[in-house]
Amino acid sequence: MTKKPKLIAFDLDYTLWPFWVDTHVDPPFRKDGSGDIIDMQGRNIKCYKEVPEVLKRLHTEGYLLTVASRTSEIDGALQLVKLHGWDKYFSILEIYPGCKITHFNKLKTKTGLDFSEMLFFDDEHRNKIDLQKIGVHTILVKDGVTENLVKDGLQEYAQRFQ
Predict the structure, then answer these.
(1) Do residues 104 and 131 touch, judged by C-beta distance below 8 A?
(2) What are the GO MF terms of this UniProt record (predicted)?
(3) Rounded to whole angstroms, how far apart are CA atoms 139 and 28?
């Protein structure tokens, strides 16, 4: 039997969407008349193309999905998660500045899961280094989350914990 993580966490900036929510866009966000998400300047705000389908599939497959983001723009990040409709997929949102170890300690406390039962997708190598110290398997994201990246990440996790 293939070993699967019980929890899959995602960073937000340059992982689920192609910008830093605290510097590259201008909250508050809203949907315009055509249903597009726009910022205060009227700029169209989009996530990476495959993200909605990836989150839907993982949720349907029964994974506990969470967010671990160190942005200082907490309200804007929460707004975008909700406007994208991802709040139906994410059970826990850890969004605040600081070291990712803090985020994962809180996830561990809230879920009762061990770090070895968690898989994390993030674009920053420094977070991968930090989380390796506590045993969270982290996949480095280069150009946003895709189906192939998640598939490869799940395979890598299974090989590590077989």
Answers:
(1) yes
(2) acid phosphatase activity
(3) 30
Q: Which residues are catalytic?
A: 11, 13
Asked if residue 129 is part of any domain, the answer here is yes
Tokens standing for residue 158 = 């299974």
Instruction: Say how many domains are in the chain.
Output: 1
User: Quick check: is 102 in a domain?
Assistant: yes
Beta strands in 96-144 (DSSP E): 118-122, 137-140
User: Distances in Å between the alpha carbon of 19 and those of 22, 25, 32?
Assistant: 9, 8, 20
Residue 1 confidence (pLDDT): 57
Helix (H/G/I), strand (E/B), else coil: 10: strand
Bridge partners, 124 (sequence order): none
Domain extent for 15? 7-160
- In degrees rounded to 5, what are phi and psi of residue 37? -85, 130
Q: What is the mean pLDDT of the chain?
A: 96
CATH number for the domain that contains residue 93: 3.40.50.1000
What's the chain's length in residues? 162
Residues of the chain where predicted confidence (pLDDT) is lower than 70: 1
